[in-house]
Every structure is written in structure tokens, then in C-alpha cells.
From TrEMBL:
Pfam families: Globin
Protein name per the record: Globin domain-containing protein
Domain spans labelled Globin: 19-163
Top-level taxonomy: Eukaryota, Metazoa, Ecdysozoa, Arthropoda, Hexapoda
Entry-linked CDD domains: Mb-like
Xref: InterPro entries: Erythrocruorin, Globin, Globin-like_sf, Globin/Proto, Mb-like_M
GO function terms (MF aspect): heme binding; metal ion binding; oxygen binding; oxygen carrier activity
Originating organism: Chironomus riparius
Keyword match Iron: yes
Domain of life from the UniProt record: Eukaryota
């Protein structure tokens, strides 16, 4: 019975995900490689746009964002968040990596659900990330549609995992 439920979940998830072309995948990965070393700036942009997200981090809650931006704690946590995305993006595109992707995404969902992080905050994070990218990449219609497709796929899995996380 568990196998049947798992098979149905995988089938439903696969139906909601749109495959990326080789060109889209290459653009997605290469453009991420352009900004992935800007960890602090990315997290700063997310927190600046969404103080409610900053408030979910005990070490940053209630603190002035500009005063913590250059701290070691902020740099370390920025590295963790951006590193997660780098790891996921690095695995995308190879079907053999699906179990690893599932493990990463399930772990993210489980740890965030336990801390009361809701779907809306993931969506806020996504919007802020896209805003950051649109100002730091050669943003055009092709780049936008590639990132929309990639993030639609990624966040479909993330939000689904958040729903079913224990």
C-alpha cells in the first residue's frame, strides 16, 4: 500500500513539473554560477524585502539588518542557504540524482515545518530571490522564462514536501 501511495505521489509530482530543455538548463546553471558567490547580498535582499522571514531566525530576529550584514553569523547562514540552492541546482538535470534531490528537499521541508515556516514565506523568499537575480544577471525574456520554469519546478517539490512533512 505504501508503494502505491508513493507511486501516485511521484506520478502527480511529475505531471506538475515541466522539463527544461538542455539550453534552458545550461542557462539556469550558468546564470546561478554568476551570482552564487554573493551569499550575503542574496540573504540581505531577502531579509530587507521580508522582515517576517528575518524574524524566523532567532540569531537575527529583532536586530538591525544593516548592523548584522557583515557579521560572521550572517555570512555563515547566508552560505548555508545559498549553498543549499547551489547543491540542488547542481543536481538538477540528471535523472540519477532524483533520490539525492528528494533527500535534500525533504530535509529542508521537515526542518522548516518544525520551525513554523509556512508556504507564504517560501513564496516571499522566491519573489525576493527573483528580484535579486533580475538586478544582478543579464535579465531578459529568455532569462526570466528560464528562471520561472526552474523555480516553478523547484518550488513545486519544496512546497509539496512542506505539506507532507512530519
Amino acid at each position: 500500500m505504501k508503494f502505491l501511495v508513493l507511486a501516485l505521489c511521484i506520478a502527480a509530482a511529475s505531471a506538475a513539473v515541466t522539463p527544461m530543455s538542455a539550453d534552458q538548463l545550461a542557462l539556469f546553471k550558468s546564470s546561478w554560477n554568476t551570482v552564487k558567490h554573493n551569499e550575503v547580498d542574496i540573504l540581505y535582499a531577502v531579509f530587507k524585502a521580508n522582515p517576517d522571514i528575518q524574524a524566523k531566525f532567532p540569531q537575527f530576529a529583532g536586530k538591525d539588518l544593516d548592523s548584522i550584514k557583515d557579521s560572521a553569523d550572517f555570512a555563515v547562514h547566508s552560505g548555508r542557504i545559498v549553498g543549499f540552492f547551489s547543491e540542488v541546482i547542481g543536481l538538477i538535470g540528471n535523472p540519477e540524482n532524483r533520490p539525492a534531490l528528494k533527500t535534500l528537499i525533504d530535509g529542508l521541508a521537515s526542518s522548516h515545518k518544525a520551525r513554523g515556516i509556512e508556504k507564504a514565506q517560501f513564496e516571499e523568499f522566491r519573489a525576493s530571490l527573483v528580484d535579486y537575480l533580475s538586478h544582478h544577471l543579464d535579465w531578459n525574456d529568455t532569462m526570466k522564462s528560464t528562471w520561472d520554469l526552474a523555480l516553478n519546478n523547484m518550488f513545486f517539490y519544496i512546497l509539496h514536501a512542506l505539506e507532507v512533512a512530519q
